[in-house]
Specification:
8 helices, two-stranded antiparallel sheet, about 260 residues, about 25% strand, alpha+beta, nine-stranded mixed sheet, Aminopeptidase, globular
Length: about 260
């Protein structure tokens, strides 16, 4: 009997080359595909980066079939910042967009998530599953109690997003103790369509897969969205209490990817 070895490996970036490869993937996804930009984006080198990168851990998904000396070996990435690094960074990245006071006042162990992306050639398969398992190990090893971070809808026009934003507001709003709020001047109300006029199927079809994955794990959204014109996105803040997850959800989170 032959045991098939996965071509993927998940680990933290440990070298400058790892980080550069993750930033190159981010450039391909967030800049080329989605039309984003930013003050530290390096168009000449094809790198999406910012001032927060040195403070974050970078969880990367590596394709072991690709030469590791090339940027192309990193085909998935997640940027993660544990709360004990916040003083050095000055703030969490998402504090630009959201008032995180309820989380900061909780005294719980927080982990900020962001810049989640997978190369287009590897979407729809097991790549995101492997990244989730790597994230689960990180969370369990460090006793993280609350996960949070901005997740994005493509585009800054609100009308096409009214259905999914309203569905999230009416059905997945975080409890008061965890209810972060989008900040002005780019705050966008999410209560755009009354609950009795919502089409669940249409709302779910218009919701990105990553957001739906958080919701299936028992996640919530904060109050209000934030229009990010630099990145050409409309952001919601996802919040997940690992201690309040159901047994089924916790079993999914701690499942290991195997070989």
């Amino acid at each position: 009997m032959t045991v098939e070895v996965s071509p993927y490996a998940v680990r933290l970036a440990t070298t400058p080359e790892d980080l550069t490869a993750a930033q190159a993937l981010r450039y391909q996804v967030f800049v080329r595909e989605l039309g984003g930009n930013g003050p530290l984006v390096d168009h000449a080198a094809g790198l999406e980066r910012d001032a927060f990168d040195p403070y974050f851990d970078h969880l990367i998904l590596v394709d072991r079939r690709v030469d590791p000396t090339t940027r192309a070996h990193v085909i998935g990435a997640y940027r993660i910042l544990p709360c004990d690094r916040r003083p050095a960074a000055g703030r969490f990245y998402s504090e630009t967009e959201f008032d995180l006071s309820p989380l900061l006042a909780s005294g719980r162990k927080l982990l900020e998530l962001g810049r989640s992306c997978v190369h287009a050639d590897h979407r729809g398969g097991t790549a995101m599953f492997h990244l989730w398992n790597g994230l689960a190990e990180y969370v369990l090893d460090r006793g993280i109690e609350v996960l949070f971070g901005a997740a994005s809808f493509h585009g800054t026009e609100v009308a096409p997003l009214a259905e999914p934003l309203s569905w999230l507001h009416h059905h997945h709003l975080a409890p008061p103790a965890m209810r972060v709020r989008a900040l002005p001047p780019h705050r966008q109300e999410m209560d755009l369509i009354p609950p009795d006029r919502l089409d669940r199927r249409a709302a779910m079809a218009a919701t990105p897969a990553l957001i739906k994955a958080y919701l299936r794990l028992g996640g919530f959204v904060g109050d209000g969205a934030w229009i990010d014109r630099d990145f050409n996105t409309t952001d919601v803040c996802l919040v997940m209490d690992t201690g309040q997850m159901s047994a089924r959800h916790r079993e999914f989170l701690i499942r290991k990817a195997g070989t």
